[in-house]
Amino acid sequence: MKTKSARRARKAGKRSIELLPPGGLGLKVVFTPPWDKSAFALAALVGAALGVAGAIAAGGAQTAQAGYAAVHDLRDAPLAGAHGARSELIARIAALGSSERLQPPAPKDAAAGRPKLIIIFDDMGPNREAFRTVMNMPGPVTLSFLPYADGLQPLVDEAKRRGDEVLLHLPMEPRGTADPGPHSLRSDMRPEALFETLMWNLDRFEGYAGVNNHMGSRFTRDGQAMKRVLAALDQRGLFFVDSLTTGGSTGSSAGAAVGAEVFVRDVFLDAEPGRDAIQRQFALAEAIAVKTGYAIVICHPHAETLDMIGPWLTTAPARGFELATVASLRAGRSRTLAAKN
Q1: What's the pLDDT tens digit per position in 226-272?
Q2: How far apart are the C-alpha atoms of 223 and 228, rounded to whole Å?
Q3: What φ, ψ does residue 264 adopt, rounded to 5°?
């Protein structure tokens, strides 16, 4: 004689259920419960399976994040740049660690004196659709073009006509296996080869005001190599923005040694994928700008970033911020030096 539970099991067959753990990056776990168990036992088993699925999802999220960071040479990059006289203050702001505690400023009546948000879009050039999206955003913004991309000059000219700032995104050697692309600067190059490679990149298009590094977590640690590069940039009247892909970068000290003008990014907007992570970096950038007068923010032309940053830039003036360029900081430095003299 068959029991009721056995009849339930035979009727159910091997029917499975799908578990979708929160934060699972789209992960779907298929689970076949023992249907002949009581309802209470089934509930306990499904709950345990969901817990296991959640753990798998968390591991998948960590793996995805690590892979993302490796591809972009950001594994060693501090999310908030700490450098020079700003380092202690920025470290304190970043240590707040909660967007609820990073409050934007009250709107001011005039743009003069407002905290500046300087937004640098890295990796521009290969993706024309991303370029068009940025061109439809409020500005001014800064676009950093990869020199090995084809057909850059019309894009550069269009951005400059719109009032945006243009940088050259100079490929540099990373640590690990990330590929910076062709004609990248390597720390093992002899001075002649280094200079020749640098010139190849600098001659790819015209109209850029400065340079920032693409990857470079290994190259920027090499003080001698950085001095050679920064001295050459300074001779051309170009400033350098250290993307700070490693906390061990020598960009600032090498620049000081050769008298080159160096700025350092404050926030990587999308070094960690995910809308919540980007939202936290929005808040951090605003807090740094309020406390120090400006924040240099670097982001990448990923769909998720572009989707979120447009509304943020649109509403920034109403929240009391000025969208600005690195050149505006350069002008401010010149006025300060003139006043001291």
Answers
A1: 999 999 999 999 999 999 999 999 999 999 999 999 999 999 999 99
A2: 9
A3: -130, 135
Domains of the chain: 4-71 (no CATH), 84-340 (3.20.20.370)
Of 261, 315, 267, 215, the closest CA to residue 93 belongs to 267
Give CA separation, 269 vs 119, 239, 298, in Å.
Answer: 9, 22, 6
With H, G, I as helix, E, B as strand and everything else as coil, classify residue 17.
strand
Which tens digits make up the pLDDT trace of 1-20? 444 444 444 444 445 544 44
Handedness of CA 287, 288, 289, 290 (dihedral sign): positive
Q: Does pTM top 0.85 for this prediction?
A: no
Query: Token digits for 170?
Result: 């100079």
Alpha-carbon distance of 230 to 251, in angstroms, equals 8
Please, are residues 90 and 288 in contact by the beta-carbon 8 Å criterion?
yes
Q: Give the CA angle between residues 130, 120, 173 to the nearest 5°.
A: 95
| 3-state helix vs strand vs coil in the chain, percent to 5 | 45, 15, 35
Q: Provide the b/e sequence for 35-67 (b: ≥16 CB within 10 Å).
A: ebeeeeeeeeeeeebbeebbeebeebbeeebee
Residue 185 is given by DSSP the state B
Residue 121, classed as helix, strand or coil, is strand
